[in-house]
């Protein structure tokens, strides 16, 4: 079987797949899923009565008048849920809280001014209302729990998401640059070009998968993408190392037969490694924590697409580049 021979079909498959994924993401879903980690919002982690199901949680939130909740069960045994609200709810309640705090502070200062001074008495402190606290007042009665069942509460600003996105893009850029520099130093620029474009192929495909599956952006999602870059480049470098050991001259890189021989020589190892790695990740998908399932799902897809690109994308790019280089110098 020849792998490099069908490079045009690989190109068509990859471009069609990317177009399908991103087309569905933006046309059918209206874009990528939103997440309070990037957009900001409010997250309440609550422990609910054992007899309350997800439907009961949704009904309670709806009865409280709070809109567009994202409800996620994080612990089946303890019946623990994360209830998230986006920036619209956060900003609406922030305006209410700011107004109430301003009025209450004014009353507090007036009462304090008219209060007789008692020697040795500590000055009372003004306690401000909080956004999370006000939402709890509205929501908890419908959930039929007290505030001690709220395990954690977070109010995340929009600037946090912007900083997180900026840091993620920097990490991705630096990773790509370092990999390109490493492959250029260890092999040659043509190899570095093949490896870098194959990685971009994997990243774009994986982002398309994240979009079509409506996986919420989060730190574990970013970690999964960065993990896939390392995994994919490892397979690619092994194939490149076999190619370098097979050729006697750089011009041999234009030969489909030589490239196919190198790919076939590592094929069983590449497929077996990917299969065994996926077994452990599938175990997380089946029985792991809910918070890790998006991470594991991305890894499974990424390993498949990364294995495909190492075999069918990286080496053909090297061949095409070398043929173009020889034409320029002939």
From TrEMBL:
GO terms for cellular component: plasma membrane. GO terms for molecular function: protein-transporting ATPase activity. Keywords: Cell membrane, Membrane, Protein transport, Translocation, Transmembrane, Transmembrane helix, Transport. It comes from Leptonema illini DSM 21528. Belongs to the SecD/SecF family. SecF subfamily. This is Protein-export membrane protein SecF. Forms a complex with SecD. Part of the essential Sec protein translocation apparatus which comprises SecA, SecYEG and auxiliary proteins SecDF. Other proteins may also be involved. NCBIfam families: 2A0604s01, transloc_SecF. It is a multi-pass membrane protein. HAMAP family: SecF_B. Pfam families: SecD_SecF_C. The keyword Ion transport does not apply. Residues 148-322 form the Protein export membrane protein SecD/SecF C-terminal domain. One of its GO terms (biological process) is protein transport by the Sec complex. It is found in: Cell membrane. The chain crosses the membrane at residues 9-29, 192-212, 218-240, 271-289, 295-318. Gene3D superfamilies: Multidrug efflux transporter AcrB transmembrane domain (1.20.1640.10). Part of the Sec protein translocase complex. Interacts with the SecYEG preprotein conducting channel. SecDF uses the proton motive force (PMF) to complete protein translocation after the ATP-dependent function of SecA.
